[in-house]
Amino acid sequence: MDPARFEDTIVAVSTPPGRGGIGIVRLSGPEAVSVAACVFRPANAARDPLTQCSFTTCFGHVFDGEQVIDEAILTVMRAPHTYTTQDVAEISCHGGIAPVRRTLELCLKAGARVADPGEFTMRAYYYGRIDLAQAEAVADIVNATTEAGRQAAVAQLGGALSGCIEGFRQRIIDLLVEVEASIDFVDEDIELIDAAEIASRTSGVITDIDELLSTAQRGRVLREGLRVTIAGRPNVGKSSLLNALLRANRAIVAELPGTTRDVIEDVLTIGGLPVVLSDTAGVRDTDSPVEAEGVLRSRQAMAAADMVLLVIDSSEPLAAEDRQLLAALDGRPHIVVMNKEDLPARVDAGEVARLASGATVWISARDGTHIQDLEEAVSGAIWQGDVGAVEHVMLTNARHQQALEHSREGLARAAEGAAEGRYIEFVAADLHEALAALDEILGKTPAEDIISRIFEQFCIGK
Ligand SMILES: Nc1nc2c(ncn2[C@@H]2O[C@H](COP(=O)(O)OP(=O)(O)OP(=O)(O)O)[C@@H](O)[C@H]2O)c(=O)[nH]1
Ligand SMILES: [Mg+2]
Fold this sequence. Notes:
Layout: E1 10-13, E2 20-28, H1 32-39, E3 40-42, E4 56-64, E5 67-77, E6 88-95, H2 97-109, E7 113-114, H3 119-126, H4 132-143, H5 147-157, H6 160-184, H7 195-213, H8 216-224, E8 226-231, H9 238-246, E9 264-270, E10 273-279, H10 289-304, E11 307-313, H11 320-329, E12 334-339, H12 349-355, E13 359-362, H13 371-383, H14 398-419, H15 424-442, H16 448-456
Parallel strand pairs: 1-7, 8-10, 8-11, 11-12, 12-13
Antiparallel strand pairs: 1-2, 2-6, 3-4, 4-5, 5-6, 9-10
Helix pairs in contact: 3-4, 4-5, 6-7, 6-15, 7-14, 14-15
Bound molecules: guanosine-5'-triphosphate and magnesium ion.
Magnesium ion binds at residues 238-239, 251, 259-260, 279.
């Protein structure tokens, strides 16, 4: 991050490449409006982009010399109340590849340079309009594929997480002030903070950090999707269930046991949650090396899953493989899916209930009956009955989670050190470490590599 580069005027196409109704070429920097004025001429000759008021638009044309390139609208936003805090100009032309590219080239010729990915947002961060966690939320909003993911990201952009981290910071700073005062004034006759006070205040912050950390699992689900694995012995209807949930003919279904040999994965939304669903090979002992490899992969997929949908054929008595699979669930989040409810039931439902702790849902994957009940059970199990609800403050980012854990360790060490009567300087050093970890989340002490890694993931023009 070279601050001198932020004084350049940058340009980028902010709309996706390809054909569309409108294509926006966006400029930011001290020369943003004058570059736009070189490229764009108002239809009303009395108007001049250089004197155009902030947050107004003007109709006109993009010109290359005397050649009209396209009809366009110019929007001028003047510093400091803009996305980047600098002057910003946007030229909205027709969204074809040719007009947008020509407009971009003309802006480059007029003195702008091509923006790096995420550079508009990086400027907003650099000039202090948003902190690093908010900048990351911008990328999350752009990338959100589900309603729940969008909601969490918007709350983060609005400063919900930042406010919470700031609260922790202030409490640590207040404590540090008193701890450091007792270092400085150790020989003087003033009341110093004691170990019990340090311990109780650090543990108060730790409790609140833990509460925030406890949202991380849900947060990860929002970003990466819930990994749901469909498992069961051969021929119980696993592939039929995948197809029923996807409402598509994705996996081969056949009467022959051992049809699916590999893990088949697809993505869908259940109750506003992104779900990565995988169908696996039926688990049984087999002499076929290919099927055996499939069974191995099934077991791996089960082990990696956030949730297992264990399918049982309700039209048959429970088999030894069913019992083994039920036992293998072993406390992992799961739902027992009693399939083929369209056929007469021959399974001992009581025995299944004794072997599994999770919910049981009866469906027919072939006919598509009660699939919705299953979907509700999946989202309900993760959100504990509160389907799709997004907490106001939520950790959705692994970087934030790591930094919080780091901060928590520093606080715990400080409390321990105070309790053991260690030198107060050591306690202060641990508190400083806890504080520095929180600063990392907000980007207060920017570490170059972290910042460039974050902004590299942005799309051009944001
Ligand atoms: N009657 C009935 N038959 C079903 C139902 N679901 C699946 N089947 C049938 O059961 C057979 C096996 O279905 P699949 O979906 O291929 O089963 P699978 O568990 O993926 O099997 P493998 O891939 O071999 O492990 C097919 O003949 C399906 O038509 C159902 O709800 N009712
Ligand atoms: Mg199958």
